[in-house]
Write a structure and sequence with these properties.
Elements: H1 3-17, H2 21-32, H3 40-49, H4 55-71, H5 76-90, H6 100-108, H7 118-128, E1 132-137, H8 144-157, E2 162-167, H9 172-185, E3 189-190, H10 198-211, E4 216-221, H11 229-242, E5 246-252, H12 257-270, E6 274-278, H13 287-296, E7 300-304, E8 312-314, H14 317-324
Parallel strand pairs: 1-4, 1-5, 2-3, 2-4, 5-6, 6-7
Antiparallel strand pairs: 7-8
Bound molecules: guanosine-5'-diphosphate.
């Protein structure tokens, strides 16, 4: 994650911070020429490093950074927020007085939100009332089924029992896929026939959990595009019937703006407690994490980092910033 973005960001910082190396070169050129012959290159240098940055010059400086961020899946609105922060810090100053890397870090950091402790949240509620119910939603192929199995495994490691509601009743293969995970993890899968009402399956799973003293019900749902009205109404119904304690949007890290748009619509439709971004292991850009958090102001709980049960990383914004290599 972040390979491409890290390289480009640090390239931009280096280019705009190397005030000691650039002057020597420019100074040599300047002594060889009369002042009137200063090239535009010299002028840019002087403006950038010695003169105070005007708003126009700041816009010019930011333009390249903006392209880098947009190309690496940082949404336009997140870029605007970064620009606002940097503008406040940089306009009126000279670049030599600014630690660009640090300011960029400070501009990105507040956009990312650290999640509450997942296990603690569950245990807190379990003291009062069981089961704890988690509803998962997102588009097809975003990694819901795999992630639910990873969460079940993570709960197991923390001595919390779970069962899975096979509420994706659209795809027969989805029920089968869950049963395979259920067999491997020794976790009950609550299912009905293909085509049944997914809310009814969720309801049954909750009843099963209560009866069998199972701590957590994980509800898998069919992949749905956020622009399909009937499917969005259906997920609303599932949420109404099962009254989840957590509603988790599953987004694919590699899809950038698509994941951001999906998160927004799901959040507006049924409300979102938090996000899990799958496939972070194959995401070179990394900007989706910044964009999704910025779009809905909710934390990312986990990053999916592979196809094995253990490939689930607790989201930590300090770690993310560290990965960007900003000091
Ligand atoms: P669903 O349709 O949303 O239930 O998605 P699936 O759970 O079936 O996942 C779709 C594909 O993505 C499968 O091949 C998974 O193995 C793969 N996948 C899921 N999560 C990750 C992840 O974190 N990293 C990688 N590399 N692949 C993943």
């Amino acid at each position: 994650m972040f390979g491409a973005l890290k390289k480009k960001l640090n390239g931009w910082i280096k280019k705009n911070s190397e005030i000691n190396e650039v002057p020597k070169k420019t100074a040599k050129k300047k002594t060889a020429r009369k002042p009137a012959e200063n090239s535009p290159e010299d002028e840019t240098f002087l403006t950038k490093f010695k003169k105070k940055l005007t708003e126009d010059k700041f816009d010019e400086l930011f333009e390249e950074l903006e392209i880098i961020l947009l190309q690496n899946n940082v949404s336009y609105s997140a870029v605007s927020s970064i620009k606002k922060h940097l503008g406040e810090k940089l306009i009126g100053k000279t670049l030599k007085d600014i630690n660009l890397s640090n300011e960029l870090k400070k501009a990105i950091e507040p956009i990312l939100i650290n999640p509450p402790n997942f296990i603690k949240e569950i245990k807190l509620k379990l003291k009062k009332n069981a089961p704890f119910i988690i509803l998962f939603f997102g588009i097809n192929g975003s990694g819901k089924t795999t992630t639910i199995a990873k969460i079940a495994y993570y709960l197991q490691k923390n001595k919390i029992s779970s069962c899975i509601s096979a509420s994706d009743t659209f795809r027969a293969a989805a029920i089968q896929q869950l049963e395979e995970h259920g067999n491997k993890l020794k976790i009950p899968i609550i299912k009905k026939d293909y085509g049944c009402d997914p809310a009814a399956v969720g309801f049954d799973a909750i009843r099963y959990a209560k009866k069998n003293k199972i701590d957590v019900v994980l509800i898998d749902t069919a992949g749905r595009m956020q622009n399909k009205d009937s499917l969005m109404k259906e997920i609303e119904k599932i949420a109404r019937v099962t009254t989840p304690d957590m509603k988790i949007f599953l987004g694919e890290s590699t899809t950038g703006n698509d994941a951001t748009e999906q998160a927004k619509v799901f959040d507006e439709t049924i409300g979102t407690t938090g996000i899990i971004l799958s496939k972070a292991d194959v995401d070179e850009k990394g900007g989706t994490a910044i964009s999704v958090s910025h779009a809905i102001g909710k934390p990312i709980f986990f990053l999916g980092t592979g196809q094995k049960y253990n490939d689930l990383e607790i989201f930590n914004k300090e770690k993310i910033i560290e990965k960007l290599g900003l000091q």
